[in-house]
C-alpha cells in the first residue's frame, strides 16, 4: 500500500468529521473484531478505524444513546462512591452515659 495515498485518505476522512470526539460502531473483522460495539474516540482515531474498515460512524441516535448510557453509568458510579464514604457509628446507651459523664461543662 502506498503510504502517501493512505495518509491522504486519512486526512480527507478526518476533515469530513466535524466534532473533536465521535462515536463509532465497530464492524466484524477477519481477526476477530466484534461487530456493534460503540466507543467514543478522537477524530483522528475514528478516521483511521474507518479507513482500515474496522468501524463506521454512529448515527445521531446511536451517539445519543451511547452518551446517555455513559452518563447513567457515571451517575451510578458516583452514587456508589458516595455510599461507600458514609460512616455510621452505633453506640449503646451505657456508652453514651459514660461519654456524657466524662465531659466536663465549660467554665464561663
Strand portion:
5-15%
- Uncertain segments are none
What Rg do the Cα atoms give?
A: 28 Å
User: How many E strands?
Assistant: 3
Helix segment tally: 4
Based on the model shown, name its key terms.
single chain, 108 residues, alpha+beta, 4 helices
Fold and architecture overview:
The structure is a single chain. This protein is α+β, with helices and mostly antiparallel strands and 108 residues long. It has a domain at 3-74. It contains four helices and three strands. The protein has helices at residues 3-16, 43-51, 60-85, 93-102; strands at residues 21-26, 38-42, 55-57. A three-stranded antiparallel β-sheet has the order 2-1-3, sandwiched between helices. Helix 1 crosses helix 2 (43-51).
Which helices and strands appear, and what pairs or packs with what?
Elements: H1 3-16, E1 21-26, E2 38-42, H2 43-51, E3 55-57, H3 60-85, H4 93-102
Antiparallel strand pairs: 1-2, 1-3
Quick overview of this protein structure:
The chain has 108 residues and is an alpha+beta fold. The chain is built from four helices and three strands. It has a domain of 72 residues.
Amino acid at each position: 500500500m502506498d503510504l502517501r495515498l493512505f495518509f491522504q485518505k486519512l486526512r480527507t476522512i478526518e476533515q469530513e468529521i466535524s466534532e473533536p470526539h465521535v462515536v463509532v460502531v465497530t464492524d466484524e473483522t477477519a481477526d476477530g473484531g466484534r461487530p456493534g460495539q460503540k466507543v467514543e474516540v478522537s477524530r483522528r482515531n475514528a478516521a483511521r478505524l474507518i479507513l482500515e474498515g474496522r468501524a463506521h460512524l454512529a448515527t445521531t441516535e446511536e451517539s445519543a444513546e451511547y452518551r446517555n448510557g455513559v452518563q447513567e453509568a457515571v451517575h451510578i458510579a458516583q452514587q456508589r462512591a458516595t455510599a461507600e464514604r458514609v460512616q455510621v457509628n452505633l453506640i449503646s446507651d451505657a456508652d453514651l452515659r459514660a461519654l456524657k459523664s466524662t465531659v466536663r461543662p465549660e467554665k464561663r
